[in-house]
Write a structure and sequence with these properties.
There is one protein chain. Strands 2-1-3-4 form a four-stranded parallel β-sheet, sandwiched between helices. It is of the alpha/beta class. Helix content is 45%, strand content 7%. The radius of gyration is 21 Å and the shape is globular. The chain is built from eleven helices and four strands; from the N terminus they run H-H-H-E-H-E-H-E-H-E-H-H-H-H-H. It has a domain at 23-178 and 247-262: Rossmann fold. It has helices at 4-13, 17-20, 33-41, 65-81, 115-131, 147-160, 173-176, 180-186, 191-194, 200-209, 239-262, and strands spanning 46-51, 84-86, 136-141, 167-170.
Length: 264
């Protein structure tokens, strides 16, 4: 009788390359270079570059909120697509001018990067990934200050690569037009309770992703004090809201990527 090890080795030897391409992760940084190479050779030619601000989120939510949310959303998008991986999230984004700090940058812990440097990092991330066989490079951002830079890089590279198979897809709808706001309004929330920063939307999504990053004892309408950095009422946040918000982002982004990739 064959040993269990012998049976396993025999099975592996007869497995086709495509069948063998079951990756332990969708995140590039959790794969070896040979796993990435083989995945690309087997048809995994879409890669997501996520960007996320490191910024104040009131007294109840951590500075890295956007990173945790977009990492989770990106992983779900990649798995739904079935032929995609996720590059390391870029957490240094434009947040304002250090010579004249305003808004988020005026509060401790927020990190900014001038837009020209942000764009250059994105550009060379995309060039690196294209070099290794990724043909559809998707840029999505979970915060506002990084949207214009991603759009600029996508336009410039697509113009340069017009005669090649590589394309960069900036999916702004992930952030700004995914339907979550309208859904919340349909549930009885208002523009005031939803807010524009660190309110119901963001707090709910982080609750769904990792509730350890919410200081529940600090939850308060408007952050609880003037100039708290909170707009809206995070006390009304919930895991249910957060799961809905993530799904809106995933569904919208997957649909747009498939439409664009399929039209080429």
């Amino acid at each position: 009788m064959k040993s269990a090890v012998a049976v396993l080795l025999c099975s592996l030897a007869t497995t086709t390359p495509l069948q063998a391409q079951i990756l332990p992760s969708v995140f590039l940084e959790e794969l070896t270079w040979t796993e990435v190479r083989d995945a690309v050779d087997s048809g995994t030619t879409t890669v997501i570059i996520p960007t996320a601000g490191t910024e104040q989120n009131g007294p109840h939510m951590i500075l890295g909120k956007h990173k945790f949310i977009i990492n989770e959303a990106s992983a779900r998008i990649a798995r739904e697509l079935g032929n995609a991986l996720v590059a390391p999230v870029m957490t240094y984004v434009p947040e304002g001018d250090v010579e004249n700090p305003r808004g988020h940058l005026a509060k401790a812990g927020t990190i900014t990067l001038p837009n020209e440097y942000f764009e250059k990092v994105l550009e060379y991330a995309a060039r690196s990934l294209a070099l290794h066989g990724f043909t559809d490079i998707v840029m999505i951002g979970d915060s506002g200050g990084n949207q214009r830079g991603m759009e600029n890089v996508a336009e410039a590279l697509n113009q340069e690569w017009s005669e090649h198979s590589n394309r960069v897809h900036f999916v702004g709808e992930y952030y700004s037009a995914n339907g979550f706001q309208e859904w919340l309004l349909s549930q009885g929330e208002t523009e005031e309770t939803i807010g524009s920063h660190a309110g119901i939307r963001d707090t709910s999504q982080l609750l769904a992703v990792d509730p350890r990053h919410i200081r529940t004892n600090m939850l308060a309408q408007g952050g609880g004090f003037p100039d708290s950095g909170v707009s809206g009422d995070p006390t009304r946040a919930s895991v249910e809201y957060g799961e809905r918000g993530l799904q809106f982002k995933v569904d919208t982004t997957v649909r747009i990527i498939r439409e664009r990739a399929g039209s080429r």
